Amino acid sequence: MDGFKSRLNESVQFKLSFWLSLAILVIAMAAGIFSFASAFDEAHELQDDMLRQVAALFDRQHLPLAHLGDDGRAKDSDEESRVIVQYLAEGSKSASRVDSGAPLPLPLSLPDGLQTLEVSGEPFRVLVKTTSSGERIAVAQETGIRDEIARDSALRTLMPLLILVPILLLIVADLVRKLFRPIATLSAEIDQRAEQELHSIEESHLPFEVRPFVVAINRLLARVDQSMENQRRFVADAAHELRSPLTALSLQAERLGEADMSDLARERLMTLRQGIVRGRNLLDQMLTLAKAQAALDRPESSVSVQHVYRCVLEDLMPLAEDKHIDIGVEGEQDAQIWVNELDMIAVVKNLVDNAIRYTPHGGRVDLSVTTEEGRAILRIRDSGPGIQVNERARVFDPFYRTLGSDQVGSGLGLSIVKTVTDRIGAEIELGFTDDARRSGLCVRVIMPLANPL
Q: Which pTM was predicted?
């Protein structure tokens, strides 16, 4: 009961359906009771009219009652709908039971007209009439039979209402559900949006009562979009502004390295130069993240995965050679994907850069692509330590780095990858290269094919 009350208070659709159904049921019950009572009374009136017509027929036609038999009843008549016609005279008092076939023991003092009497323990509706010849006749019918006929007639009148009310309730429930369908569709549309999709909601097809709410949501989306745009612009501007002083510091450090200095000073200078390089890498990653969060133009053509691999390897080959890492593309299979080339390069470059950094000297990094069920599956596998299962949910957070890692990095690489894949509708999965040893990182990027090969 508590759940029903809670749902009634929380759901407008359920509340509207409940109260409309309740109103229909109450009105239908009132109409049914009135219809049943009216039909019941009308049937009794018709039966009284029938008694009057029978009496008038005997009076006008001067029909003798002898042909009805000695018991005053028609032979071979229907027992349930029989009408008893008899003289109201001394001879009619001889019978004591109704079922015996004798005339009814009616009192001679009965006045003319309709009346309900109890004869030998059974109720009868009796019409007493004095004919034009001065004889008095009684036309009678059992009340139980009359009530049964009237009740059957009233129920037949009520039957269409009993059939139509449940159908009406189903129609009302269906109409209410259809009326609320635009709201459910709107909810599903908003729920399926990515975090970067802050464009306004189309309101022309929505009911008039819902439009003010949608207008308020659109204004909120516009404010959130403006706030996020300001934040991205601030990050990009700050990164650009910091580039110049870091470049100047790098040049000064290089000039300082040409000067004569002690071994201790040169060691400290080396540490300074490494910090400057790390700062510049951090700024580059922040700019890349800001670009990844901004919605780029929709692609005008498909891009080849093998082409993306070649572009990335050309940029990162010196870093792999410096660590003597065997890096390359496995197989010659290619796939065309409908995505912005800069987005795809950003994803693959960050994944390969991450693989090179965490793979030890003399290790291995393999790139490959396969197609399956209309999807392209990009794999980047390395022979590094891999990422443990309990950390895989957090490695996509900005500035998060795996515990115990001694690699120099900004902690933004996988965050950039996740941001871009979410925006372009791709899926990313992390696993082990060697499941038995639980080592190495295998990254799978899954996205629809533009033209399956």
A: 0.51
